[in-house]
Design goal:
By secondary structure, the protein is an alpha/beta fold. It contains 8 helices and 10 strands. The relative contact order is 0.20.
């Protein structure tokens, strides 16, 4: 049994909240630079230059890449040999979010009730997804989710007979309907299988994988490439001004499902696709 102080977790989460919101991921930066070289629209090229300059300024001054610093979403893998001393794990994470968003001067965007709309003033509570694994470590992945892109996500319960073509059509149609709203070039997370809620969780989890890392299954790696190609032929382009770079990447995750179903979820992210992982 390995003991981990809740204070250590809180401090790690605080730092993650600030870092993920202020420093662009290296894989995203590389993808933006590559897009700048391949983009055929002059307006699109100018937008990409501005996005790279914005990210550079944000990192140097440690200020948010985007004014929407998102709702705090976590995927946490808990080793079965871990014992948390002090606060329980959920409380420790929530305290870290509160400290990160307050001390980092990040925008607080969470309301305590979806209908009464009263701001919690510290961006809590976070959304936390737990899985339990072997070992004596905690793996914490943080993904702040802005709602300009979140609002354009979608889920559909396809029929098994719709097959892969049905999946492709649904994903591309969802991106087409989203248009300029998610601040393209976007990153698209796709969850296939499981149940209604599992597909949505998979789609969000997919967005925490670096876009330069393909799915380990060759079939789904090929599907990611095909979807990216089709999405970039939509012509939406950087910030919706037209062009050949509508998406920087497509990540697909899958899970076993029922013989009668084919759930598919699409979770869209803006170009920044912020995420940060620590192992304690």
């Amino acid at each position: 049994m390995r003991k981990i102080s809740s204070e250590k977790i809180t401090q790690a989460v605080k730092e993650m909240c600030i870092k993920a919101n202020c420093y662009i991921d290296p894989a995203i930066k590389a993808a933006l630079k590559n897009a700048l070289e391949t983009e055929k629209s002059d307006v699109g090229k100018n937008v990409l230059k501005n996005l790279l300059e914005n990210a550079e300024i944000a990192g140097k001054k440690e200020i948010p890449i985007c004014q929407d610093t998102g709702m705090a979403v976590f995927f946490i893998e808990v080793g079965q040999e871990v014992y948390i001393e002090g606060d329980n794990l959920s409380v420790a994470v929530e305290k870290g979010v509160k400290a990160g968003y307050t001390d980092g001067y990040l925008r607080k965007s969470v309301v305590e009730d979806p209908l009464n709309r009263v701001n919690t003033k510290d961006n809590t509570p976070p959304v936390i997804h737990y899985t339990f694994t072997d070992g004596d470590k905690l793996k914490i992945t943080f993904a702040p989710k802005g709602f300009g892109s979140e609002n354009k996500s979608a889920l559909k319960m396809l029929n098994p007979s719709d097959g892969v073509n049905g999946v492709i059509d649904f994903v591309t149609e969802t991106v087409k309907k989203a248009g300029a709203n998610p601040c393209p070039p976007m990153v698209v997370g796709v969850g296939i299988g499981g149940t209604f809620e599992k597909a949505a969780q998979l789609a969000k989890l997919a967005l925490t994988r670096d876009i330069d890392t393909a799915n380990e299954n060759p079939y789904y790696a090929d599907l990611e490439k095909l979807l990216l190609e089709k999405i970039n032929k939509l012509g939406i382009g950087p910030q919706g001004f037209g062009g050949t770079t509508t998406a920087l990447g497509v990540n697909v995750e899958y899970f076993p499902t029922h013989i009668a179903g084919l759930p598919v979820a699409v979770n869209i992210n803006c170009h920044a696709t912020r995420h940060e992982t620590v192992i304690i």
